[in-house]
């Protein structure tokens, strides 16, 4: 589909993206280091993907696509206790939803057999040993940032003894944690991650992919680097916290030479690789972080498990499932990732960057509709009771290709309660008793009197429609201060409208402030459900269809609960940033 085009020609892809990673890829292709690039997106299936992962996905898949390469989706499933097929399925759905497809679907666990053989090779080379120290002892021997570590008394075991013990670990002869296989690197290294890291542990826990086949599991770094090598990854992109671990990554790659060792490859190894040249290079980039959100899988799991939200796809959650349900579009997320760019500087971005990308995307892409969120009845007393007409409205003010629709208009309407004020505040431009306002696309009305209930609440406005102000009439352009939207009471469809807002009230819910945690900052206003009225054309929406409800915000027909004729809409984002005004 895409071609290798390192020039600046405008194409399906935007080759003007010039971050440091793309520059490395461009250089590697130009100098012939690689003839084609291979990347992978390697989530651990221990939770749902979140907005941060969208950045990694756009880089891993996006760069492969832009430079004519291939990207695998690989589940780094080395920690069976926390992993689940539910996550495996959701992650695939999310990657596809973002608009990407993988060259090949892999699991680190597909390679367990060759990881095992690679570990035996390390042992035979004298590069790994079985340690009998307990986890606590290993920690104690490791030393600190200022003190070197000490060698384990088991570090100098002979190759034969190590092989025997490692095989018996695999055979399930020892208890969990009784022994580990460690890389023999350097206990005095200034880089703690090089002080003989564990590469295999005993853990008799069934695995989501391999079941009960293995009583031992490779450690993440070993499995990750080996997997990259086996798949012929050229550029292994990851987040900055892996920077310190890069020497260990390189060690794991370099100590097991794949060329000339077919037993260390799998039928899944990408065929025809010049393995020497394909030695993967780890490149770190900054994590995506936004204020007003928490984004670690552990905390998101806690929100779900403690019932603080309604599940992983609660529209207030920063999971891809959540923001999808909220009404975020794949193109808005890709736009956000482009705007944020790629660097090596971790930072906390303002949530308005995310919301702004959605507004800009939907401003161009979402048809307009009229909907009244908090209704107040308006009666046009000078129209007959059976008056009915249908008015033509453009579906988009800036794009004729959206076409037009017809909206019924009749004697009784719903308008937005906040568009009327009995005692108008200073500068109020909408409807007051004795005042005029324009009904969008229908003419100008004057409010003659209000009807109140016993409690004194205004329940109805009795108004006169100026016949000279109707569309096409001479007085249609008469100046009035405000224009409001409306729906015909007889034709509008009642809709459940969920008004979502930010989940947290403070920009840094994650900061531990005197014993408080993010749990204490949940915004009680983050969801308010009301019954409103939508014009018939909105009620017919398909699930996940987005609209701009004029003057109100962008709304999406709920993925799960909306049905044509029984509408349920989620507010994705308001038209303007109301938080900026509050601050
Ligand atoms: P978390 O820390 O939120 O639990 P994780 O890093 O453990 O996430 P993985 O499943 O290991 O999640 O991540 C898969 C890939 O996505 C990794 O390459 C990781 O670096 C990247 N990634 C995770 N979080 C972010 C983020 N906030 N911004 C950019 N990339 C991210
Ligand atoms: Mg992780």
Explain the overall architecture.
This protein has 583 residues and is α/β, with parallel strands linked by helices. It has three domains: 20-285, 3-Layer(aba) Sandwich (Rossmann fold), CATH 3.40.50.620; 287-368 and 494-583, Beta Barrel (Ribosomal Protein L25, Chain P); 371-485, Ribosomal Protein L25, Chain P, CATH 2.40.240. The chain contains 14 helices and 25 strands. The chain has helices at 20-30, 51-66, 85-97, 112-124, 135-141, 159-170, 220-230, 246-254, 297-305, 320-326, 330-340, 351-365, 536-539, 578-582, and strands at 38-41, 70-75, 105-107, 128-131, 180-183, 198-202, 216-218, 235-239, 281-285, 368-369, 371-372, 375-380, 388-394, 404-410, 412-416, 436-439, 443-452, 458-465, 483-484, 486-488, 493-500, 527-534, 546-549, 553-557, 568-574. The strands form six sheets. It has a seven-stranded mixed beta sheet with strand order 10-23-24-25-21-22-11. Strand 17 and strand 18 (458-465) form a beta hairpin. Helix 7 crosses helix 8 (246-254) and helix 11 (330-340) crosses helix 12 (351-365). It is elongated and about 100 Å long. It starts with 19 loop residues before the first helix and ends with a helix. The model is unreliable at 1-13 (pLDDT under 50).
């Amino acid at each position: 589909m895409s071609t290798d085009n390192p020039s600046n020609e405008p194409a399906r892809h935007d080759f003007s993206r010039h971050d440091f990673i793309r520059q490395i890829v461009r250089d590697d292709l130009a100098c012939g280091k690689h003839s084609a690039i291979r990347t992978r997106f390697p989530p651990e299936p221990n939770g749902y993907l979140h907005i941060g992962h969208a950045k990694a996905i756009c880089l891993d898949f996006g760069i492969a696509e832009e430079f004519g390469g291939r990207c695998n989706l690989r589940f780094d499933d080395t920690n069976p206790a926390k992993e689940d097929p539910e996550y495996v399925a959701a992650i695939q759905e999310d990657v596809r939803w973002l608009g990407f497809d993988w060259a090949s679907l892999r699991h680190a666990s597909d390679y367990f057999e060759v990881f095992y053989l690679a570990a035996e090779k390390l042992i035979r080379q004298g590069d790994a040993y079985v340690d009998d120290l307990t986890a606590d002892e290993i920690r104690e021997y490791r030393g600190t940032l200022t003190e070197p570590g000490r060698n384990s008394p088991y570090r100098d075991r002979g190759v034969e003894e190590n092989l025997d013990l490692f095989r018996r670990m695999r055979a399930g002869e020892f208890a969990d944690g009784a022994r580990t296989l460690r890389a023999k690197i350097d206990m005095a290294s200034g880089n703690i991650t090089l002080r003989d890291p564990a590469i295999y542990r005993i853990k008799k826990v069934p695995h989501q992919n391999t079941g009960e086949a293995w009583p031992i599991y490779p450690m993440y770094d070993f499995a990750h680097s080996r997997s990259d090598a086996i798949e012929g990854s050229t550029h292994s992109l990851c987040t900055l916290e892996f920077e310190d671990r890069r020497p260990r990554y390189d060690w794991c790659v370099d100590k097991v030479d794949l060329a000339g060792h077919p037993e260390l490859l799998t039928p899944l190894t990408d065929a025809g690789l010049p393995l020497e040249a394909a030695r993967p290079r780890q490149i770190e980039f900054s994590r995506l972080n936004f204020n007003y959100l928490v984004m670690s899988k552990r905390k998101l799991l806690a929100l779900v498990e403690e019932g603080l939200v309604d599940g992983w796809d609660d529209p207030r959650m920063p999971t891809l499932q959540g923001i999808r349900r909220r009404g975020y579009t794949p193109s808005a997320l890709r736009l956000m990732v482009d705007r944020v760019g790629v660097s090596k500087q971790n930072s906390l971005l303002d949530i308005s960057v995310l919301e702004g990308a959605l507004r800009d995307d939907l401003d161009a892409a979402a048809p307009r509709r009229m909907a009244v969120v908090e209704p107040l009845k308006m009666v046009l007393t000078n129209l007959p009771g059976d008056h009915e007409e249908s008015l033509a409205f453009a579906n988009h003010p800036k794009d004729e290709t959206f076409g037009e629709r017809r909206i019924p208009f009749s004697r009784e309407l719903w308008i937005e309660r906040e568009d009327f004020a009995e005692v108008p505040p200073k500068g109020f431009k909408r409807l007051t008793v004795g005042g005029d306002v324009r009904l969008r696309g229908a003419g100008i009305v004057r409010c003659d009197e209000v009807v109140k209930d016993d409690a004194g609440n205004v329940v109805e406005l009795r108004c006169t429609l100026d016949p000279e102000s109707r569309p096409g009439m001479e007085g249609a352009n008469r100046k009035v201060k405000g224009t409001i939207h409306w729906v015909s009471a007889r034709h509008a469809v009642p809709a459940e409208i969920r008004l979502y807002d930010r989940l947290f009230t403070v920009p840094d819910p994650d900061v531990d402030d005197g014993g408080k945690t993010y749990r204490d900052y949940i915004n009680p206003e983050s969801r308010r459900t009301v019954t409103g009225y939508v014009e018939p054309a909105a009620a017919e929406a398909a699930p996940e269809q987005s609209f701009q409800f004029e003057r109100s915000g962008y709304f999406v027909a709920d993925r799960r609960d909306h049905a044509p004729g029984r509408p349920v809409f989620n507010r994705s984002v308001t038209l303007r940033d109301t938080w900026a005004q509050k601050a």
